[in-house]
Amino acid sequence: MRKQHPRPARLALATAAAAALTGGLLNFAAVPATAADANRNYEADFNGDGYGDVAFAAPYVKLGDKGFAGYVAVVHGGPAGLDPAKRTVVHQDTPGVPGTVETEDTFGSALAVADLDGDGYTDLAVGAAGEDGGEGSVTILWGSASGLANGTTVADPEPAAHGEWGKLLTAGDFDGDGRTDLAVGTGSGHVYVIKGGFTPDGTAGAAQRIDVPDQAYAIDAMAAGDTNADGNADLVLTYRTDQTSSPSGSWSKGVAYLGSSSGPDASVPRPLNGGTSIALGDINGDGYDEIALGNVFTKEDDHSGSLGGKVVVIRGSEGGPVNGDAPMAELTQSATGVPGADEARDGFGSAVSIADVNGDGYGELAIGVVFEDLGTTEDAGAAIVMNGASSGVSRTGARTVTQNTSGVPGTAEAMDYFGSDLLLSDVTGDGHADLTVTAGFEDDGIGAISALRSTATGITTEGARTFGPGSLGQPRSYGAFGAGLIG
């Protein structure tokens, strides 16, 4: 039977599916791990213990009597994987954190990770796009030997020019000066890159404003990586244009700005496919980051050519992303080697992530299929992991994981939306990227996380864990726990 979902407003990260289907207010920035360090398969280590950590957000949760206030949580990694007993939960009433818990602040609507002050500990940038009636805010939570502690507000350079400051976030050294910069998306069609030099007292560098082409009226997803291996981070984003003015009728587009000594080079935008989720990482092991773009919109919606969603992988090279008539891969569930079937409104591509799972030097590609039916169980959701190879995305050995997979705790239920977000990141310290998956609407919108480890043979369900807000000492209430999954 054909699914009758309303067309999603955007599915980019972590329960964006749930947000869209419930009239959600926000969009989320997809910021999966990149291949910046081939020997370190994670981005976030907030306490500096050598194990990758994962940050989660629950931007729609009610705190006290304040609905949609939001919090973020960090679960620390270790030899056995993510351990909910080792966690930090932060909201705007946490001592040392700027602001106050208020209705519809949606603290955690976007996340980015990087060592922003250069002290050796990863910091967490948090967007609250609903702050102050939709003006938005960005807060940096500082890493330390004890984990996240205290916070600093990142000033908006042009508050009168837009709303929803902090709607999207990503970080990278775009100008190659050795300091990490922070890119901030807004509710309009432009992005600000705040140059590095961040300090806990509020110091930051100058801001570069980037106006997205084609009269974009919304930015859907944003990420950073190094597609040309020059040491400067490149900025990649997707955006929406006026569908009625587009000759093809397709209203989702993408663009890459290569890093340069002055920051992202906005004078030479590199056109890309559109999409609703982004990941960067080296799939074929040549040292250049590929760009994976997931587009959940259906054939009827934007002429993507797929009933249930598509993932396009664009090759990196010395000259940057190689786009055109022959991407590295165009994946649907009817493509060779991709498990499942291309069915209307499956949401294939709801989330994407790239990292080396089996330690062979090639990045695996994880893909969320948020509305996948399992037998007669509608919208249970699934995650697919495809192998990397010297030739690109391998068409052999793909693995599907669901809540019905043997060894995965829990049971697949209708509208769980397993795969609404996912992340490949090494949380065990063994050099293999592990798989973390959000079920964004588990238990009617409470949300849950499944954490699976990996070995030299790939993802394993041995020792798999599933946990929700109750495991972190938080109320089990509607809140989209797991939105904004990053590490």
UniProtKB/TrEMBL annotation:
One of its GO terms (biological process) is integrin-mediated signaling pathway. One of its GO terms (cellular component) is integrin complex. InterPro entries: FG-GAP, Int_alpha_beta-p, Integrin_alpha, Integrin_alpha_N. Keywords: Glycoprotein, Repeat, Signal. This is Integrin-like protein. The keyword Transferase does not apply. Residues 1-35 form the signal peptide. The keyword Glycoprotein applies. Coiled coil: none annotated. GO terms for molecular function: integrin binding. Transmembrane segments: none annotated. It comes from the Bacteria.
